């Protein structure tokens, strides 16, 4: 079955385009290698895909630079010289920018002002005022942030101080932490018979704490000796 003729135009589907590029690139490199081996030719192919990836084939017997040198000699052009001139021109522009910036810095420091006329001095003065304004705004912002941070720290310290005062007052009321009113028991500290003891008082349901206590069987008072 004969293959249909492919219309040469841009493949719109990105996936199909990348697959076709990869297959044809490999086929082209294969043909270039065959030319190198069969015909002792020096072949160089540089390809850049639509995604910006660089692919290159170079005959094993030469380097890319040697092939470019051979190209320049054959065609009669000097690619390196034109490139060098462009680099030199770019270097001159960068030096001019650097020189102007250095002069502007010296002028803002009050130096190299003799060559400036009245209009240039006015412009320099305005630039300095604008710079000072920006510096002040930045300074005030930094100071404001520092003040906010300090206030937050003060509030935290004050809160800690209040909590400590509350805890201290609670300990003043119950220095030993022995008086508790939880469940059906009240505990108090006593010193019967010359020695410290804890008295645990159990309150019966519907009984008030000021009712008379009784002893004997099923007594409501239990004592615990302190070690």
- Helical fraction equals 40-55%
Give the C-alpha Rg: 47 Å
Major β-sheet annotation: 4 strands, antiparallel
What is the chain-wise order of helices and strands? HEEHHHEEEE
* Oligomer kind: single chain
Low-confidence sequence ranges: 178-192, 195-204, 207-227
Q: CATH homologous superfamily of one domain, by name?
A: Transcription factor, MADS-box
Notes on the protein architecture:
The structure is a single chain. The chain is flat. 0% of the residues are buried. Residues 178-192, 195-204 and 207-227 have low confidence and may be disordered. It starts with 13 loop residues before the first helix and ends with a strand. Among the domains are: 12-76, SRF-like; 77-114; 117-169. It has helices at 14-39, 64-75, 79-108, 118-173, and strands at residues 44-48, 54-58, 181-182, 185-190, 197-202, 221-225. The strands form two sheets. The chain has a four-stranded antiparallel β-sheet, with no helix packed on it. It has a two-stranded antiparallel sheet with strand order 1-2. It is built from four helices and six strands; from the N terminus they run H-E-E-H-H-H-E-E-E-E. It has 227 residues and is of the alpha+beta class. Strand 3 (181-182) and strand 4 (185-190) form a beta hairpin.
Could you name the key traits of this structure?
227 residues, alpha+beta, SRF-like, four-stranded antiparallel β-sheet, two-stranded antiparallel sheet, 6 strands, 13% strand, DNA-binding, MEF2-like_N, TF_MADSbox_sf, nucleus, coiled coil
């Amino acid at each position: 079955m004969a293959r249909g003729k492919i219309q040469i135009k841009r493949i719109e589907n990105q996936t199909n385009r990348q697959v076709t590029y990869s297959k044809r690139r490999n086929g082209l490199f294969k043909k270039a290698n065959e030319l190198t081996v069969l015909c002792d030719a020096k072949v160089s192919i540089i390809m850049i895909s639509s995604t910006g990836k660089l692919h290159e084939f170079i005959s094993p017997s030469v380097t890319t630079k040697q092939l470019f040198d051979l190209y320049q000699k054959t065609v009669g052009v000097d690619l390196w010289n034109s490139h060098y001139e462009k680099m030199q021109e770019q270097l001159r522009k960068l030096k001019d920018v650097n020189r102007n910036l250095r002069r502007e810095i010296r002028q803002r420091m009050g130096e190299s002002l003799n060559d400036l006329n009245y209009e240039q001095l006015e412009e320099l003065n305005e630039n300095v005022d604008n710079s000072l304004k920006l510096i002040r705004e930045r300074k005030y912002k930094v100071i404001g942030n520092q003040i906010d941070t300090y206030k937050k720290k003060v509030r935290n310290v004050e809160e800690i101080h209040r909590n400590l005062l509350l805890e201290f007052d609670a300990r003043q009321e119950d220095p030993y932490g022995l008086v508790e009113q939880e469940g059906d028991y009240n505990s108090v500290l006593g010193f019967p018979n010359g020695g410290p003891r804890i008295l645990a008082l159990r309150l019966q349901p519907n009984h008030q704490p000021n009712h008379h206590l009784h002893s004997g069987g099923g007594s409501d008072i239990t004592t615990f000796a302190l070690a």
